[in-house]
Amino acid sequence: MKKYFVLIAVVCGILFSCKPDPKLPSVGTHPVTEVTAESAVCSGEIWDNGNAEITAKGFCWSTNQNPTLNDNVTTELSRYEPATDFFTATIRNLKDSTTYYVRAFATNEVGTAYGSEQTFTTLKADDNGGDDNGGEIVVELPAVTTVTVSEITDNTASIVAEVLNDGGAEVTERGFYWNEKNVEFEGEIPLNDNKVEAGSGAGQFNYQLTDLKEGTEYRVMAYATNDAGTSYGEIVYFTTEKNEIVVELPTVSGVTVSEISFHTATITAEVLTDGGAEVTERGFIWSKAGAGMDNSETIEPHRVKVGEGLGSFTYLLTGLSESTVYYVNAYAINSAGEVVSDPIHFTTEADDVVVEYEYVDLGLPSGVKWAMHNVGTSYPEGHGDHFAWGEIEPKDTYESGNCSSYYKDLGDISGNPLYDAAAAKWGNGWRMPTLEEMYELTQECTWTWVDDNGIVGYKVTSKTNGNYIFLPAAGFRVNGDLIDLDVFGYYWMSTPYEEEGSEPTLNKACFLDMCSYQFYCNWSLRRNGMTIRPVKD
Length: 537
Description:
- Helix content is about 5%, strand content about 40%.
- It is an all-beta fold and about 525 residues long.
- A hairpin with a 2-residue loop joins strand 30 and strand 31 (about 480-485).
């Protein structure tokens, strides 16, 4: 297989830092205390939150070992304040004289972790329903928690709570207290708030709040009642949405160009929508294309205001240069900011005098004809201008920072007047040679090095018909320097460089590398200034 390139792999490492990734929490289970015939007090401790908020904690228990959340569970939720590290809970309705296994658990965004397993055996109850210490079964307050507030709109919200256990007696009433946050209340809990009932019994319950005020902060608290009295969940706060008029950027069409002449052109665009606010300014941004620029950038941009509001607007550009590429954007401004359309380009008309450049037919299999001289000169031995790859004007300095084609996926640029200097300067079908066409030149011709009275380069003679072209050793430019003049020749091709089996390398392109002892197809950084020998079909 023919090799066109010398491959060089460049590996770049990117170092960065970030905060620790979340992981499962670490939790411990303390020994069980205050064991009776039908209840026990469990305690646990969160040792490490796993770099994430603890959203639930509690205990799971069973008569089988290694209980999980699929078994009996008592849960504490902490949604609006950090969960405390140490926590306890009383588990009830146990069977007397029975061995139980219990584990603490804690949940964060990664998942649920369990503590070590503790075991205990309930006491034996006497025939009268008390325990063996003579005490009677005591009904306690139910345990209730305010779980979530969701589906919040400007005037409604869904609230959910849960009766975790009934305290040993039926929960006869449950529901919510709610009000605006700024309404004062006496005592520790807001019992003067609006009260709504939501059924009875243990388990989850919910209610839909309606007729709320937009953009207002509210509080809500769950309650549950049994024979022992009423218990209350934590107070949860939420804010309803506010119906604000959202102003967005206006939308503007692309630019159309008409009536293009040598020095003028008419440009038109339209403000399609105002984004919900008055368009206070609209107009055009335009510039001549130049070295270091492409169809998404301009140099020395001109800005002209053409009124305000919605609708179509037009402007006549004057004072343009003939046969020149220009870029134009439309813009529109409202209180949300400025929007700019995608750029378009057009070329002013050229003088009727058409320069005919000579070519040589080398009888190549492709039929491609090669120009007699380089771009930027008029005779075969002339060096001509130097261009960065993908740019259409020579410049004073050639650097990575002012190379417009760096890290841009332009594809093969042959014949594209925006990036091909031969097409832009000569027109009439002239273009940069492709990699295949340059390789054909190296294989189908005889190359003879010439160094005669300051004329240095290769005489390239057809093996088919004896016709020839001369490629001077014009060196190359980097930064502000001209290097290897009359020693090496460097000629750009239109083909970007690609490493075998890899994605395109977007800062390199193919070129002809030649000196007195070799000539071959190579690659170089696109920033370097090299000569161009045009071809045409």
